[in-house]
Amino acid sequence: MGKDLFASRELLTSAQMRALENHAMATGLATGLALMERAGAAVAQEIRLRWPVPGRVVVLCGPGNNGGDGYVVARLLDEAGWQVRVLGLETAPGPDAAEMKRRWRERGGIEALTVEGLRREEADLTVDAIFGTGLTRPPEGEIAALLRDLGNAARDGHAVSQPLVAVDAPSGLCLDSGAVLGARRGADAGAPHARLTVTFDSPRRGHVLELGPALCGELVIADIGLARQGRVAPFGAIAPPIALMSGPRFAAEQAFESHFGHDELCRNLLTKSATGHKFSHGHALILAGGLGQGGAARLSAKAALRVGAGLVTLAPPTEALGEHALPPDALMRRAVDGPEDLLHRLEDKRITAALLGPGSGIERAAALLSALLETGRPTVLDADALTALSRRAEPLAGLHPGCVLTPHLGEFARLFPDLAEKLRGPVLPASPPPEDMAAALAWHAALKADQAALAAMRGPLYSKLDAVCEAAARAGCTVLLKGADTVIAGPDGPPFVQASSYDAAAPWLATAGSGDVLAGIILGAMARGSGPYRGARIGAALHAAAARSFGPGLIADDLPDTLPKVFHTLAI
Ligand SMILES: NC(=O)C1=CN([C@@H]2O[C@H](COP(=O)(O)OP(=O)(O)OC[C@H]3O[C@@H](n4cnc5c(N)ncnc54)[C@H](O)[C@@H]3O)[C@@H](O)[C@H]2O)[C@@H](O)CC1
Ligand SMILES: Nc1ncnc2c1ncn2[C@@H]1O[C@H](COP(=O)(O)OP(=O)(O)O)[C@@H](O)[C@H]1O
Ligand SMILES: [K+]
Fold first, then answer.
1. Which SUPFAM superfamilies does the entry mention (predicted)?
2. Which of 55, 89, 540, 551 has the most CB within a 10 Å radius?
3. Nearest ligand, CA of residue 548?
4. 406 lines ligand 2 (CB under 6 A)
5. Which of 357, 442, 450, 366 is nearest to 407 (CA)?
6. Which domains does the chain have, with CATH numbers?
């Protein structure tokens, strides 16, 4: 953690990565052969850094350029004194990989890429150079068996159990989604678990979403000399838009600064001017619930105060005012009894943002929603408010660009059932599933049962980023989908992943009430004028940073109180 908390870097799709490489080759920046040599050299170097004493390595080379990288790794490790076995395919790869294969043949042989071949001799290390970004369909036959074998080995220690280093990605992982191609969504059978993955230039979506972090192990992003300047050019017409990701280690190791000015702004938004007063920092209104439901709203309120909102008012119904008199004492309390009352309260233009949902109760949320949306105030909708939205005849009606929705996957599925179903599905369907939910479910069940149809499918898989982008476009506002990989999309910023993976993991956030704190941080930032997209990004970053700073034993109450410590490291 450090002052780079908000720094982000590009997160590419496989197609964008290919475009970048092609652009580099077309503009004479580098030849394909040179890129392959650098990629292989980067992998060999990372291996030698971690395993300085040469041992026995088996390099598994696939049919494409990923295999080409593998032949380079084999040659360089051989030169470094390793005992190298190479398992490869008969098929002729493209010209660059063919050249690397030829160069390897000058030093050693190639055995068949089979389970039997893999098991024939013990090794200290396996290098997986079977598939990278070119994987377009589920692996089949012998290669599928081999990948399953490697996957099982990592899980239960059977068969081959030596550490595995993946070139670009563990083979079978879809680099667009983080799912395993051909496996049930969320299941990791069929792809090896790597100890180390060395990827090139930029992380891909699949490295940080879903199963990516678990399958990749440590992720090293090696620079292979693709242009940093003018990178927008090669992407040109390629959809979807380039996403960004953040996570402390990635931020620290890379000098990509402000993308679109968001990174710097996120930081600056948290400072306070020497001459300001409380109203210069906004007034946040939290629409709390009835008796017995106070805890969640107070968690949000404390977070909003800690993030620097000038004033925070808790607004329960009159009968619950007494319960909400509990600390923090810095809070103001004022009853709001129904939509009329709310509209009246919001005539006060000094109220700069509102939150509805945490502990508000579904009925109360439903009663207040329309009035709140009608005012056009910057608004965070969380928890019960999301459930209330999903129960309306037109769930998304009235949402405006000043809104942030913060669903977890369950709430997301209620609001966007078809998108959630697509996310559960194994492949990006050629045509969309039927609108009607029951028909869509039947459609998917039939698809999943039809192995032949599945095998014929082409990637890329539908990803969480795709789903959240679609949801944000439909809702016309910012959507933050919570999870270990928190994804944000909205009208005023690029799609974004807060990568809570690798050494940025914040698993202690999986505790009751931590979502209420997140909503409160976003509310506080929005009350201070961050706008919805940046508010969501500030929230996701600070939330994870506070959890990492506190560490094991964290309960949601600790999160707001840990924020000052995080701010100290940010020099705010
Ligand atoms: N293009 C470049 O300039 C560079 C590419 N590099 C490497 O090249 C990789 C991408 O290379 P490719 O595009 O050749 O793709 P891959 O080597 O990842 O695999 C594609 C090959 O496998 C086949 N294939 C795909 N799915 C299959 C399946 N289920 N069963 C059997 N065969 C299948 C494809 O038809 C193709 O021949 C990257 O991951 C990276 O490792 C690096 O060398 C850096 C430079
Ligand atoms: N394994 C994890 N790693 C990182 N963050 C997590 C993890 N599990 C949950 N979180 C985060 O914790 C919060 C949980 O929020 P939510 O699901 O609304 O729970 P609650 O309603 O109990 O507050 C979200 O911000 C989510 O991103
Ligand atoms: K690979």
1. Ribokinase-like, YjeF N-terminal domain-like
2. 540
3. 2
4. no
5. 357
6. 30-225 (3.40.50.10260), 265-270+279-415+477-569 (3.40.1190.20)
